[in-house]
Amino acid sequence: MTRIAFIGLGNMGGGMAARLVGAGHEVIAYDLSAEALARAAGRGCTPAASVREAVAGAEAVITMLPAGPQVRAVYEGEILGQAPAGALLIDASTIDVETARAVAEKAAAAGYVFADAPVSGGTAGAEAGTLAFMVGCDEDCFAAIEALLAPMARAVLRAGDHGAGQAAKICNNMLLGISMIGTCEAFALAERLGLEPDKFFEIASKSSGQCWSLTSYSPWPGLVETAPSNRDYSGGFAVAMMLKDLKLAQAAAASNGASTPLGAQAEALYALWDRLGNGGRDFSSMLQFLRGGA
Questions:
Q1: Which of 106, 169, 199, 206 is catalytic?
Q2: What is the pTM assigned to this prediction?
Q3: Which residues are within 8 A (CB) of 58 and not within 5 positions of it... i.e. 6 or more apart?
Q4: Is 169 a residue of the active site?
Q5: Which of the two ends of the chain, N or C, has the fewest CB atoms closer than 10 A to its terminal CB?
Q6: C-alpha span between 62 and 79 (Å, rounded)
């Protein structure tokens, strides 16, 4: 049994922490939200009154935070120098590459092993323990990181050195955002052409248009049982979070001289859907916009 401090118990973090408890670890949890902390306690975590209290005595620390500024503030102000020397530190947030590398450098200087390990798989994956972790870390540290993340994962993949996990996540989610828009456009056009959505799904899923957004996460209700489209697009991966990741991708593209025209268009579409009041809905709700439901 490992004593793990888990910081950040939102839609993703709560399920992830519960999987660690289920694997027999002692999880000391903290979140700014009293409600989230109470839910975690109900699932076997031990609540802490602060980040510093959570990390005291921890053998490992896992953070799941909203953005780069929060990650930097929590690590520099409340984890480094407070967690025991030599503790394994893993940030599973999705943030910019530069911040991940800066925190890794400070952690190493303070005597810690650090990894950036953003995830793919959404809330369903967090609950089921089927997330994919994209890890940026020193190669000789990966085995220990992989073992700690295993109860939450279907795959733990080392992308490269520090920051590479974030690079992989940003590129992956740009592809996902673009793919979902294409899938939604195809359903909307099929409808206008009089093609039944279930028939289009059957054909496209066995043809060259097949993709994850279609067959695992269909935006059209009633076709994939576990998809958020069956719950009026509640839960899942929020429009606001997809927009955040697309903004990270565009910032990275701009700073590195990469051309990503479809990524830029995807960002614009999700930004519009967000401004229309849909930021908290699953990103596959883009189908409603493209069907004229704005």
A1: 169
A2: 0.91
A3: 3, 4, 5, 28, 83, 84, 87
A4: yes
A5: N
A6: 11
